[in-house]
Amino acid sequence: MPQDTVDPMLTKEEIVSLVNGRLNRVLLIAQAALPEHQFAAFRRLILDEFGRAGLIKDLDTVPGEKRRERNGTGRTT
Length: 77
Known about the structure:
The chain is mainly α. It has a domain at 12-59. The protein has three helices and no strands. It is flat. The termini are far apart.
């Protein structure tokens, strides 16, 4: 299999890892380009959209993916 192809059977964790790598780069560029208060708002928006309340929650609906029951209150930070 060529290196530039993606396995069609990626797991949720693999997808999240790939997205997080790109998000880190986007946030670094935004931090360099935006004033501090605008960057803070942009970062909050990006992390909401691609984090537990956005993309990760959407990936929980992917058929065939094993779901873990979540107990407790989750992250507090």
